[in-house]
Amino acid sequence: MDIRRENVAKQKRNRRIIYGVLGVVAIVGVTVGLSRLKPAAPGVERSTVWVDTVKRGNMLLQTHGLGTLTPEEIRWIPTLTDGRVEQILMRPGTKVKADTVLVVLSNPQLQQEAIDAGLKLKAAQADYNKLQVSLQSDVLNQKATTAKAELDATQAKRQMEIDTQLQKLGTISPQTLETSRGNTEQLAAKAQIERDRLENSSKVKEAQLAAQQALVDQARELAHLNQTRLEALKVKAGTDGVLQQLSLSVAGTDQPLQVGQQVSAGTTIAKVANPTKLKAELKIPETQAKDVQVGQPAEIDTHNGVIPGRVTRIDPSVQNGTRTVDVTLTGELPPGAVPDLSVDGVIDRERIQNVLFVGRPAFGQDKSTVGMFRLLPDGKTAERIQVQLGRSSVSTVEIVGGLKEGEQVVLSDMSRWDQYDRVRLE
């Protein structure tokens, strides 16, 4: 006899539903669990990262800048007149004296003007001598006339004295005596007039000679000016030093000076510098230049020696994100220290006492908070933490918070692992 198995089929269907639900729940649970797992820490070769230890002590705040050595004494040599380059006697790099001729120019027109001015001076001097002789002759003639008038006046006076005595004796009439007295007064007045004329002729002589002398002086100055301009065709160094540059600006660019080129008056063609007195011009980033002050000590590395110095000037303007800082050198120049030499400079800003500091990381600005990898006690794992930075120097930075003395941190650029909070140092 067959038995119906309806209950068995129903039980099987229920079991399938339960198993399916359990399977879904299991998959969901596994998915949630996997999603909550942290990614495995990636491996980083230890030899490729820079690890430093946090220290406590005194920290020297410094500012670094690149620059060049430049002369403190520079003389730019211009041409004083128009001319054509005929000879170049010196080349850049040559030691020169103040009277060393660097370049010889030519200017035929100026040469002719100098000759004409010299001839005009000779003509003016000749006119002066001729006038002097003529006036001297007039003065002598006036002296003769004055002498004759004075003699006539003296003789008339004597005659009047004689006539006075004769009239007392009754030998001559009173009318004759009166005539003699009138003649004496007339000749005395004439003699005074001639003396006045003599004095006036001397003044006239001085005035005319002074006027002529002014013309002579004018001609002499013109001749001297033309001679000076003629001599200026020989362009001299003007100071002792080394010829740094011999060039001519063409279309806004400096090109080496060449024979045959035409130059205008006032054109700068040479630069002479004193190579024994150099200073360093450092380019300091504007964000760091605010802490640099005049008088701060500095060291200039010429790559062949280090020279001590002191900040003497800070350019107030900003160019290409930097400010120029002048450092006067106080030590002896090492061999090879020449103008335009590239140098590294370090300026000592301040020494701060008893602070936490570490090597300067490859990222992060002063007084900012950055993420850094700190090594765990096992020395093989590093975890990311937030570190508060303070003041920074060339190679160190102050730690304000986030690290303790003795802890080690990675200073290298770890931007490749920004998505990880832990790394393994292998």
Q: Could you explain the architecture of this structure?
A:
The strands form 4 sheets. A 6-stranded antiparallel beta barrel has the order 3-13-16-15-14-17. Strands 4, 6, 9, 10 and 12 form a 5-stranded antiparallel sheet that branches. Strands 8-7-5-11 form a 4-stranded antiparallel sheet, with no helix packed on it. By secondary structure, the chain is α+β, with helices and mostly antiparallel strands. The two termini are 78 Å apart. Helix 2 runs antiparallel to helix 3. It has 4 helices and 22 strands. The protein folds into 3 domains: 173 residues, Beta Barrel (Elongation Factor Tu (Ef-tu), domain 3), CATH 2.40.30.170; 71 residues, OB fold (Dihydrolipoamide Acetyltransferase, E2P); 123 residues. 36% of the residues lie in helices and 34% in strands.
Number of helices: 4
Radius of gyration, whole Å = 52 Å
CATH architecture of the largest domain: Beta Barrel
Identify the strand order in the major beta sheet. 3-13-16-15-14-17
**CATH class of the largest domain, anyone?**
Mainly Beta
**And the CATH topology of the largest domain?**
Elongation Factor Tu (Ef-tu), domain 3
Q: What series of H and E elements makes up the topology?
A: HEEEEEEEHHEEEEEEHEEEEEEEEE
CATH evolutionary superfamily of the largest domain: Efflux pump adaptor protein, beta barrel domain
- Name the overall outline: rod-shaped
Mean pLDDT: 85
Which band does the percent of strand residues land in?
25-35%
Q: Let me know the largest β-sheet.
A: 6 strands, antiparallel, barrel
Pick out the low-confidence regions.
Answer: none
Task: Report how far the terminal alpha carbons are from each other.
Answer: 78 Å
Strand count: 22
Helix content: 25-40%
Content-based structural category: alpha+beta
As for the number of domains, it is: 3
